[in-house]
Structure formats: structure tokens, C-alpha cells
Amino acid sequence: MDSSIIIEKSVIILVVFAITMVMAMYSTLAERKVAAWLQDRIGPNRAGKGGLLQPLADGLKLFSKEEFEPNTPNRFLFFVGPAIAMSTALMTSAVIPWGDRFHLFGRDIILQATDIDVALLYVIGVMSVGVYGIMIGGWASNNKFSLMGAVRAASQMISYEVAMGLSIIALLMMTGTLSLREISAQQPGMHWNVFYQPLSFFIFLICAFAETNRTPFDLAECETELIGGYHTEYSSMKMGFYLFAEYANMFISSTILAVLFFGGYNYPGMSSAVENWGVNIANVIGIAVLFAKICGFIFLYMWVRWTIPRFRYDQLMHLGWRILIPLSIINIIITGIVILRAEIAIYLGF
Amino acid sequence: MSTILIIFCVLAAVTVLTAFLTIFSRNPIHSALYLVICFFSIAGHYLLLNSQFLAVVHIIVYSGAIMILFLFTIMLMNLNKENEVHKPRITRLGAIVSFCLICLVLLTVFINSKPIVGEYISTGDDYQSIKVLGKVLLNEYMVPFEFASILLLVAMIGTVLLSKKEKTEK
């Protein structure tokens, strides 16, 4: 492998890491600002201009707080829990195509850390491993409330993973590939998958809410029943890691929604932009468009939080197992019929 | 030593070590977690063999689903008691005898076994690509594939039936 590729990939990885961190940081501010706006308040406005430095102040506060530890025989696992949550939240971004190819210094640069053949399965795999962070942390806290919160969160996440996987299958039958790069390349202009697979998109969206433990599915941290859920015993930056992982997950799932269903970096008129202004400028616009889509989804997360109240636990399980899974199986059958319509017509003798 | 060999040695060491720790650790949750690490290192072996699909599916199915259900059961049934009750002598004797018998069988199998494929020939197909894998699985190995899925379905229906409470006659 030649060294320029290593340098290129390292730069991309570092930049993506930094962007994920900054987006997660400012999502906390955005959440409070959106909440304030929806409730006709002002929101945080003391630190910096219009509250712009609020995330930094929060981070500083979390770092400097005293760290309590519960009386637990599993101190190591208590420490590992938030670490797993944080690292799985950051790992997913490796396979996401942030833009088309750039042409710089006489060579093509692809804005993606790695383009593996099974990218979408990798995303699902990392997501399913993320459950361990919650379970280990909740169990090692040596507290019944934490354990119940952890078990609730984990059972919710694995239940909705099933529906999520099934909803993606309908999309895969259409695209015929698991590589996120090829999936976004297949949606030029306005040929976004959401117009061809709307049901798949809605199921995926609902499951993404459940996977990130956001309202209306935030039963894991149901304050009235479980105090604070799996992170009841955590304090200082360890709790900060759990909260931060939630926001990083939100950013990543918004990105995956944008790439899978909303065309990724594609925008109407991209081909004419490439002809008139060159590849690089068209790509910069593409990256901006992708981030606009991501921010739109993050806003949707926050909007829903202040619109729909929390479900009851049996309602959550009912929705996941009895409604979303049959719906996605019906969607798979319909997609199969549409793909094979020519063969079926011949078979039936039309 | 080549890089691949070093990675293989590290992975193999981790696999064997965590597999033994799974058996030897007193706390059931610790042993489940060691098993998870063991599964991850096995996925690493698959990656070394250049089969990305198998590695990812292994992680999704074993670490992401099965082991989480294991942990669930252990945590909820509160089995995490460290002090193990001593088994009766006859049970321990039986365990030792059956272990020795299994060792004997395995030893004879390994001594007498001959490799079926003497020489590995490259077919030119890229078997890490899902497209090739799917075509092979649904053309050449269609019947075993379908049988495996029927087996899974039967197991699933059986579990549901077993867990259902029987209605009492009025």
C-alpha cells in the first residue's frame, strides 16, 4: 500500500471523528434551543453569544465534577460500559460516503474511510454490539433500577433490530448491493429511494428512533418508574459518555437515513454542476446538501420528542413485533412482485 | 514472520484464552462476556480468511442476538452467585469419565482423518462478494439452504408452543 493512501485515509478518519464530535456537542445545544422554541421560551443564552459556548461549558462541568462510584464488585465492567457505548457510536461512520470523488493533486480522492462490500451489514452489526455498553453498565452498577433500565433498553433495541433488518431487505432487493457508496450512487438527482420505498423508510425511521432510545421510545430512562435508567449510578464524565453516545448515535442514524433513503450527497442538477463548475465545487455543494439533510433529520428527532408522549412498555412491544415486522414482510413481498412483474406476466400468460 | 501470521497468532491466543476463561470463571456473567470476546476473535479469523460476509453475520447473530439473550436470562434470573455448590462425587466422576471418552474419540478422529481436498485450486470467483455468495447459495446449494431455513422455522414454532401455557379445562 502506498503511503499517500494511508495519509489520505487517516486525514478522512480524523476529520470524520472531529465532525461527529462537534455535531454531537452542538446537538445538545440544538436540543435545548429547539425545545425552548417549541415551548415558546428562549433557551440557554448565557454562555457565549446566544448560548453558543453552552456545550463547552457543559463539557467542562462534567469533567470537573466529583466522580462517585457505587459499591460494586465489578469496577472494571462499570468502567467498560460507557467506553463500549461511546466507541460503537463512533465506529459506524467508517463506511459512510460523505461525498463523491474529489480530484485534487492529480489524483482521485474518495470521501469515505473504507468502502467494504458488506457496509450495511457492518452498520447493523455495530449497532447490535452497542447494546452491550448499556447492558454491562446497567448490570455492573449493582442497582436494581439500573438493571431494569438496562434490560428494558436492550430488549427494546434487539426487538426493533429485527424490524429494521427486515425493512432494509426490501431496499436491498431494489438496489442489489450492500455497499453504501453504490447505494448513494444509484440515486442521482431526485431519484431518491424514499419515493420508491416509502413504507421501508417509515419502518426504518421508527426503528431508528427506538434504536437510539429517543422519545417516544425512551422507556429505558423513564424517570417516573426507573429514576434514570441504566445510567442512574453514573456520574461525571462517565455519564457524559452515555449521553454523548446517544447524540452521536442520533447523528449517525440521521446520516444513514439520509444516505439510504434521501440520496446522500445527490441533489437535483448535480450533473450540470459538474459540467459547468467542475467536480470539486459540485462535490462541496454535495457535502453541504448531505449535511443539510442530516440536520433536517436531527431536527425531526427533536421535534418528535416534544410532540409525541412516551409509549407504554406493552405498546412498544406490540408496535415492534405485531405491526412493524408483518408490515415489513408485506413490503418485501410487494417489492418482490414488482421486481419480477415481467416474469409473472409471462407465467400467467398475459 | 509476516503480518498475517502475527495477527493470526494473537487472535488464536485470544480465542483459546477466552474460551478457557469462559469455562473457568465462577461468575456466569463474566463467563458469558468472555464468550462474547471469543466470538469476536473468531470473527477476526473469518476476516483473515477474507470472508467479510461471514464475519459480519457471525457478529450480528452470535454476539448481537444470542449472547444478549443469554445475558438477559442470567441477569434476570439472578444467577450471578459466586459461591458454587459442590456437586456430589458421582456427578464429578461421571464428568471426568465422559471428558476422557470425548478426548479419546477426538484423538482417534484426528489421527485417522485425511483431508478431502488435497490441493486448493482458485476458481477465480470472488467469494467474499455477496453477489457470488448469494448465487452459489441459491443455485448449487438451494436444497440444503431451504432445509436449514425449515429447520429454523420448526425450532421457532416449537419454542413458541413450549412457552405457551396450556389452557385449563373448565
TrEMBL record, chain A:
<feature type="transmembrane region" description="Helical">
    <location>
        <begin position="192"/>
        <end position="211"/>
    </location>
</feature>
<dbReference type="GO" id="GO:0009060">
    <property type="term" value="P:aerobic respiration"/>
</dbReference>
<keyword id="KW-1278">Translocase</keyword>
<feature type="transmembrane region" description="Helical">
    <location>
        <begin position="119"/>
        <end position="140"/>
    </location>
</feature>
<keyword id="KW-0520">NAD</keyword>
<keyword id="KW-0812">Transmembrane</keyword>
<comment type="subunit">
    <text>NDH-1 is composed of 14 different subunits. Subunits NuoA, H, J, K, L, M, N constitute the membrane sector of the complex.</text>
</comment>
<dbReference type="InterPro" id="IPR001694">
    <property type="entry name" value="NADH_UbQ_OxRdtase_su1/FPO"/>
</dbReference>
<comment type="function">
    <text>NDH-1 shuttles electrons from NADH, via FMN and iron-sulfur (Fe-S) centers, to quinones in the respiratory chain. The immediate electron acceptor for the enzyme in this species is believed to be ubiquinone. Couples the redox reaction to proton translocation (for every two electrons transferred, four hydrogen ions are translocated across the cytoplasmic membrane), and thus conserves the redox energy in a proton gradient. This subunit may bind ubiquinone.</text>
</comment>
<dbReference type="GO" id="GO:0016655">
    <property type="term" value="F:oxidoreductase activity, acting on NAD(P)H, quinone or similar compound as acceptor"/>
</dbReference>
<dbReference type="InterPro" id="IPR018086">
    <property type="entry name" value="NADH_UbQ_OxRdtase_su1_CS"/>
</dbReference>
<keyword id="KW-0830">Ubiquinone</keyword>
<dbReference type="Pfam" id="PF00146">
    <property type="entry name" value="NADHdh"/>
</dbReference>
<protein>
    <recommendedName>
        <fullName>NADH-quinone oxidoreductase subunit H</fullName>
        <ecNumber>7.1.1.-</ecNumber>
    </recommendedName>
</protein>
<dbReference type="GO" id="GO:0048038">
    <property type="term" value="F:quinone binding"/>
</dbReference>
<keyword id="KW-1003">Cell membrane</keyword>
<feature type="transmembrane region" description="Helical">
    <location>
        <begin position="247"/>
        <end position="267"/>
    </location>
</feature>
<dbReference type="GO" id="GO:0005886">
    <property type="term" value="C:plasma membrane"/>
</dbReference>
<dbReference type="GO" id="GO:0003954">
    <property type="term" value="F:NADH dehydrogenase activity"/>
</dbReference>
<feature type="transmembrane region" description="Helical">
    <location>
        <begin position="323"/>
        <end position="348"/>
    </location>
</feature>
<keyword id="KW-1133">Transmembrane helix</keyword>
<feature type="transmembrane region" description="Helical">
    <location>
        <begin position="12"/>
        <end position="29"/>
    </location>
</feature>
Automatic annotation (TrEMBL), chain B:
<feature type="transmembrane region" description="Helical">
    <location>
        <begin position="90"/>
        <end position="111"/>
    </location>
</feature>
<keyword id="KW-0520">NAD</keyword>
<dbReference type="Pfam" id="PF00499">
    <property type="entry name" value="Oxidored_q3"/>
</dbReference>
<keyword id="KW-0472">Membrane</keyword>
<feature type="transmembrane region" description="Helical">
    <location>
        <begin position="31"/>
        <end position="49"/>
    </location>
</feature>
<feature type="transmembrane region" description="Helical">
    <location>
        <begin position="141"/>
        <end position="162"/>
    </location>
</feature>
<dbReference type="InterPro" id="IPR001457">
    <property type="entry name" value="NADH_UbQ/plastoQ_OxRdtase_su6"/>
</dbReference>
<keyword id="KW-0812">Transmembrane</keyword>
<dbReference type="GO" id="GO:0016491">
    <property type="term" value="F:oxidoreductase activity"/>
</dbReference>
<feature type="transmembrane region" description="Helical">
    <location>
        <begin position="6"/>
        <end position="24"/>
    </location>
</feature>
<feature type="transmembrane region" description="Helical">
    <location>
        <begin position="55"/>
        <end position="78"/>
    </location>
</feature>
<dbReference type="GO" id="GO:0048038">
    <property type="term" value="F:quinone binding"/>
</dbReference>
<keyword id="KW-1133">Transmembrane helix</keyword>
<keyword id="KW-1003">Cell membrane</keyword>
<dbReference type="InterPro" id="IPR042106">
    <property type="entry name" value="Nuo/plastoQ_OxRdtase_6_NuoJ"/>
</dbReference>
<protein>
    <recommendedName>
        <fullName>NADH-quinone oxidoreductase subunit J</fullName>
        <ecNumber>7.1.1.-</ecNumber>
    </recommendedName>
</protein>
<dbReference type="GO" id="GO:0005886">
    <property type="term" value="C:plasma membrane"/>
</dbReference>
<keyword id="KW-0874">Quinone</keyword>
<comment type="function">
    <text>NDH-1 shuttles electrons from NADH, via FMN and iron-sulfur (Fe-S) centers, to quinones in the respiratory chain. Couples the redox reaction to proton translocation (for every two electrons transferred, four hydrogen ions are translocated across the cytoplasmic membrane), and thus conserves the redox energy in a proton gradient.</text>
</comment>
<keyword id="KW-0560">Oxidoreductase</keyword>
<comment type="similarity">
    <text>Belongs to the complex I subunit 6 family.</text>
</comment>
<dbReference type="GO" id="GO:0008137">
    <property type="term" value="F:NADH dehydrogenase (ubiquinone) activity"/>
</dbReference>
